[in-house]
Amino acid sequence: MTAFPLTWLYAPGDRPDVVAKALTSGADIVVVDLEDAVAPDRKAYARAATAELLADLPPVPVHVRVNALDSPWGEQDIAALAPAPGLSGLRLPKISSSAEVTHVARRAARTDLYALLESALAVEQAYAIAGAHPHLRGIALGEADLRADLGVRDDTGLDWPRSRVIVAARAAGLPPPAQSVHPDTRDLEGLAASCGHGRALGFLGRAAIHPRQLPVIERAYLPTEADVEQAETVLKAAAADRGAQALPNGRFIDAAVVTAAQRTLSLARRR
Fold it and tell me: Which parts pass through the membrane (predicted)?
């Protein structure tokens, strides 16, 4: 897996044919969904089909979004899939406390976990959740449920929760979160604009629900030539003088700026 995944493609767990296509889509990570994309009477089949898929190593990293812990299926999902050799991570929906993360970590030893925050309570608990357990590798928002919980009508109404989760991830030493999905799979212009806004907030990459969204997301999050040039200037200056300093253009640089420049050049290598 690339050091900085940018695209996370969801595929319904009860559609092995769609999952197979997702695995060849070019997404950095495929997320097999057992939750929202699967009807209640298909849950058991989706779990079994996913366990069969992950009995071997897939061609790209595969995460599984299990059902919520308080649902009739969540615990069964974890028990069936955590031991799978081909599993790269479990995505845990509707997490609202650190205790829920530690509970899953005990059930799924040595499995990387990713918490989805989908309520006002979860956002308020973001930092505690982010630091709940060493096996927690990332947090992200579930914006559809959060929007409903908050009664938000305009997209900008979610900017504070977005920033809250980004800050919590950074404070806990986790990677920058990926953006939540853009639900209109044909609105590629809107997707590009939304990704630009998300990048400005501090997100890195985005979840997708259709392969056509992947190149738009990648373009939005890859550094521009100007970004690369600036990063190279920062690293060159840092190599000459390890202390904090100001560049000829007046920009102040320190260790945090150097780290960001290194990430920019790492992303640029994907081109």
Answer: none
Residue 240: other Cβ atoms inside 10 A: 8
Question: Does the annotation list 33 as a binding residue?
Answer: no
Question: Minimal CA–CA distance to 29: which of 127, 137, 123?
Answer: 137
- C-alpha angle 46-18-216 in degrees, rounded to nearest 5: 125
Domain count, the chain: 2
Beta bridge partners of 207: 8
65 among the known binding-site residues? yes
Look at the pTM and tell me if it is higher than 0.90.
Answer: yes
Nearest to 6 by CA among 164, 209, 214, 173: 214
CB 77 within 8 A of CB 34: yes
In 3-118, which residue ranges form alpha helices assigned H by DSSP?
Answer: 16-23, 43-53, 74-81, 98-107
Give the Cα separation of 119 and 31 in Å (integer): 21
Residues 213 and 246 in one domain: no
Q: 159: Cβ–Cβ under 8 A, 6 or more apart, which residues?
A: 201
* Tokens 């509707």 belong to residue: 94
The domain boundary, picked from 198, 219, 240, lies at: 219
Same domain (yes/no): 192, 85:
yes
Residues 135 and 12 grouped into a single domain: yes
Q: Which domain holds residue 247?
A: 223-267
List pLDDT tens digits, range 96-143: 999 999 999 999 999 999 999 999 999 999 999 999 999 999 999 999
